[in-house]
Amino acid sequence: MASFIIRALPNTLTCCNLISGVIATKCAFDGQFEWALTFIVIGAVFDFFDGFAARLLHVSSPIGKELDSLADVVTFGVAPSAIVYMFLNGINVIASPFNNLLPYVAFLIAAFSALRLAKFNLDERQTTSFIGLPTPANALFWGALILGINQWGAERLMPAGYYLILLLIFIFSGLLVSEIPMFALKFKHFRWKGNAIRYGFIFSAIICITLFQIAGISLLIIWYILLSILTQKK
Fold it and tell me: CA–CA separation, 190 vs 194, rounded Å?
């Protein structure tokens, strides 16, 4: 019985990630963006611990790897797509037939997230770092951005903000499947040497979120991308 529980624990955590993603999607379609972001964050926590548990208990399996990707597509692909779609769908900025079609561009986030996860499963280079923007970072960016815009007052940022969001969808979809090396917050040891970028990023994260609150998460993801580009080894 104990052996069965140990083997089942990582996949159970992965399923909790999946359930969190489904709830986040439901909240997004209900227009409850704060709850949607909350469940994306909860899903990210489960996503971290399922892999951690599998390595710690030495129970990694091919089915666990596939299940993890399926859960991530929902939590970090479908859920943020739903958030952006519902936000864009609630704003009328142009009087044309395209006004009803443009919000569907948001679902490119789900499509490119799935493509990024499929590439990750086949790419043996991404053991200690990432190639392209990780899907959890992308999901957090979109959830925090839309929630931050709502808190500031969306009407004050339109229509320019509307078109900027559409542009960002294409940019971040490209980043998901790009060949840009991006560092991971994985510590082999806790000494400063070899971890300077990670410690610096954590310190900047504290400052950014303290100053800008929820919207600071989006700024932090942008800083993560820029920092990865600036510090990549030639």
Answer: 9
Q: Which amino acid is at 214?
A: I
CA dist 156 and 149 (Å) reads: 9
- Is-above-0.85 flag for pTM? yes
H/E segment holding residue 200: helix 196-212
pLDDT attached to residue 141: 96
Spatial CB neighbours of 62, under 8 Å, sequence gap ≥ 6: none
Q: What CATH class is the domain 2-231?
A: mainly alpha
Token pair for 109: 């986030």
Q: Which residues of the chain have pLDDT under 50?
A: 234
Q: Quickly count: other Cβ atoms within 10 Å of residue 69's Cβ.
A: 17
Task: Note the pLDDT of residue 59.
Answer: 65
For residues 100 and 81, the answer to whether their CB atoms sit within 8 Å is: no
The domain locations on the chain are 2-231
Helices then strands (H, E): number in the chain? 9, 2
**Distance (Å, whole) CA 163 – CA 44:** 29
Q: Which residue in 142, 10, 162 sits closest to 77, CA to CA? A: 142
Radius of gyration in angstroms for the set of CA atoms belonging to the chain, rounded to a whole number = 18
Instruction: Find all residues with CB under 8 Å of 116, minimum gap 6, and list them.
Output: 132, 133, 135, 176, 177
